Automatic annotation (TrEMBL):
This is VWFA domain-containing protein. It comes from the Eukaryota. The lineage of its organism: Eukaryota, Metazoa, Spiralia, Lophotrochozoa, Annelida. SUPFAM superfamilies: Cysteine proteinases, vWA-like.
Length: 694
């Protein structure tokens, strides 16, 4: 195993064996949430309730590995089970709703007549006598009629319980008693007896309809089972109501989802029971190697005690992120804490205590350039605990939560010792992909990963080989079309106490998490290269998807031209790679693709282990490593306030106020452009992290 300076030593950092993720989302929809944060669903303030869908969508959208899974549990339904499978409940309810809409083309009279016929055959032979058609036509809406017919046609449990629990006894089998016969006779003669006439009124029919609606909603809730866990594509299709490229949830779609769940929410708060249910889902053998995340959105007031199954969740390596919802003022809402504040109320302290800690090594570096966010790193760690008092903050929190799990970068920690200009600007600005000799690009990318691998060794004995010398050696070894790149890299690694191996995407992401850039190869036809180049010319910071370039449509005999780049980072949306075509190409020399299959990416990792180090290098790390890591964290934390003097106008501005590209920035005072190339430069670090967060 390997890593970089910021951890401890290559081979010591604890990371997950697989990068596939299982995300559990617990959303508090209980009455206490309504009481504490307000926002009834029928009022403008209902944006709080609507934000639950933003949470679900924000945590599951996109899937780089195609192996990520998710489950979403609702906490606090009005009916049993109060704990329910939110995603499958939405799926079931909307499927039923779609069928109901199709039935609305039928006349309401015809639908009601069929309902009565079904009830007559299922224990209510006198229902037509009790409920006259003219009364039903005036009381039951078209939507309700379609819904009842659907439930009666498709659910034997609903048929039985509707007759037993919602209809009065006058609709059912008559008791063969003298009293019953007497009443029956009076009824048929149009007579009147105590209790008979009132069941035929509109109020009586409305009462039965209301009971039936409540029963229908109760039976629409889907309990928790292994089926609650699904891949993120399926979950996204349920939320978006369609199949295809993920887009943001529209207001119209959120309103549809709100109408779907509105009848179910605002019950009790069995948060502890829901967390225990999540343990059973995380424990499934098929997810043993998954990185596991539990995101809890709640007001911190469980109705079933304060004994969460933290030990059980820890046994399955579940990382817990707690988002505390309140309607009260928050002194510092955009802050991650290492220690709980004494001024917090009990619910906030409870949620903080449940949240997991994350070491500074694993904090996504992009957080440090997000405006307004402060991060405590006392004891080299911080809690994954967020406080939210406005629905507009939900999206920001979800973004940060996702990044904690699926956003890693391999270069930011090394910018103190290398300049990216070295690797990016290796060709003319008018570089053409098709005109590139394969051996030049392979040599550039190979030399970059070799150079960066050795730069990760503190106090390397013999110093650090020059990048251009490494590239020349690669070219001299005849890396060109038809040459096995892995074999040539293996030869190079032997001379520098390094190792290399081919790997799949999951292992490549694991390498990035350990701060190791990875060599990437891919091959395209002439036509595909045209599409590739045109896309990034029009969308420099865009994400290439299959709809933009589909290599599966190429002919099997088509000639392809190979290329090599360096995988440097990833997040939940895309893979980000460094090219060598100049800083004016795409996004400052970097480009993004949705996943590895888009270009048919192949990965080669270059690394070293602790056994490869000389004793002097081990000693150097022990002596210098902690101070270098501390200096890096100080630089990261200081980015919000760090100043930089413009070389053009000599005026100082905050580094976060500079705009532009990775290696070419614009001064906020004079609007002049200048290059930034110096290693260890706060401005270069800021521009790099800002480019990551696009």
């Amino acid at each position: 195993m390997v890593t970089s300076l910021g951890a401890s030593m290559e081979g010591k950092i604890v990371i997950y064996q697989e990068m596939a993720t299982l995300t559990g989302i617990l959303v508090d929809v209980s009455e206490s949430m309504e009481r504490n944060i307000g926002g009834p669903v029928d009022e403008e303030g209902g944006s709080w309730a609507r934000s639950i869908f933003k949470v679900l969508d924000g945590l599951i959208k996109h899937d780089v590995t195609k192996k990520n899974h998710v489950f979403g549990l609702g906490v606090g339904a009005r009916y049993e089970p109060q704990v329910f499978d939110m995603l499958n409940t939405i799926k079931k309810a909307q499927s039923e709703s779609s069928a109901n809409r199709q039935r609305r083309s039928l006349s309401k009279w015809g639908i009601l007549n069929e309902i009565l016929s079904i009830l007559e055959r299922n224990g209510a032979p006198r229902v037509r006598t009790w409920a006259k058609m003219n009364v039903l036509m005036s009381v039951v809406t078209d939507t309700e009629a379609s819904m009842f017919l659907g439930k009666l046609l498709n659910g034997s449990d609903f048929r039985r319980r509707f007759v037993d629990e919602c209809l009065p006894k006058e609709c059912k089998e008559l008791e063969r008693s003298l009293r019953s016969y007497g009443k029956e006779g009076l009824f048929f003669m149009g007579g009147y007896f105590d209790g008979a006439q009132e069941y035929a009124t509109k109020d009586a029919v409305q009462k039965a309809v209301d009971k039936g609606k409540k029963l229908a909603h109760e039976l629409s809730l889907v309990g928790i089972s292994p089926a609650a866990v699904m891949n993120v594509q399926k979950a996204s299709e349920i939320l978006h109501g369609s199949i295809g490229e993920e887009e943001e949830l529209t207001k119209h779609r959120v309103d549809e989802l709100m109408e779907t769940v509105k009848p179910f929410i605002y019950g009790g708060t069995p948060l502890m029971r829901t967390m225990k249910e999540s343990v059973s889902l995380f424990s499934k053998p098929e997810f043993k190697q998954h990185h596991k995340l539990l995101f809890i959105l709640s007001d911190g007031e469980p109705g079933d005690g304060y004994n969460p199954p933290l030990r059980e969740l820890s046994n399955y390596d579940v990382t817990i992120i707690c988002c505390y919802i309140t309607n009260k003022a928050i002194a510092d809402p955009r802050r991650l804490y290492s220690v709980a504040s004494e001024c917090w109320e009990k619910p906030a302290k409870f949620m903080f205590k449940m949240s997991s800690t994350i070491t500074t090594q694993m904090i996504p570096r992009t957080i440090f350039v997000k405006r307004g966010w402060n991060i405590d790193i006392e004891n080299n760690e911080t809690h994954l605990f967020f406080q939210v008092n406005h629905p507009d903050m939900i999206e920001d929190v979800c973004d940060l939560a996702r990044n904690v799990v699926c956003c890693q970068d391999s270069l930011s920690d090394m910018l103190a010792s290398v300049s990216l200009d070295l690797y990016i600007n290796q060709v003319n600005q008018d570089f053409s992909a098709k005109g590139n000799k394969e051996r030049a690009c392979y040599a550039n990318a190979s030399a970059a990963v070799l150079h960066l691998a050795m730069k990760r060794i503190v106090g390397r004995e013999g110093g650090y080989p020059d990048f251009f010398d490494l590239r020349k050696q690669m070219i001299d070894k005849n890396i060109e079309k038809g040459v096995n790149v892995l074999r040539v890299l293996e030869e190079m690694c032997l001379g520098y106490r390094l190792h290399c191996e081919k790997m799949d995407l999951l292992k490549a992401l694991k390498a990035i998490t350990a701060k190791r850039p990875v060599l990437v190869q891919f091959r395209l036809t002439d036509h595909e290269w045209d599409l590739f180049s045109d896309f990034y010319k029009k969308h420099p910071d865009g994400i290439l998807t299959k709809s933009d370039l589909n290599i599966t449509q190429r002919s099997y005999v088509a000639e392809v031209i190979g290329h090599a780049v360096v995988l440097t980072s990833y997040n939940g949306e895309c893979l980000r790679m460094m090219n060598s075509w100049g800083s004016d190409w795409a996004d400052g020399g970097f480009f993004r693709v949705r996943d590895a299959d888009i270009l048919g990416l192949e990965f080669i990792d270059v690394k070293w282990t602790q056994d490869d180090l000389k004793q002097s290098e081990i000693d150097a790390y022990k002596q210098q490593g902690p101070s270098l890591a501390s200096k890096l964290m100080s630089s990261l934390k200081g980015l919000q306030t760090a100043m930089y003097k413009c070389p053009l106008c000599s005026k100082e501005s905050k580094v976060v106020d500079y705009k532009g590209k990775l290696l070419r920035v614009v001064c906020p005072c004079c609007n002049g452009w200048f290059k930034t190339k110096e290693a260890g430069d706060d401005l270069a670090l800021n521009m790099y992290l800002t480019s990551l967060s696009h």
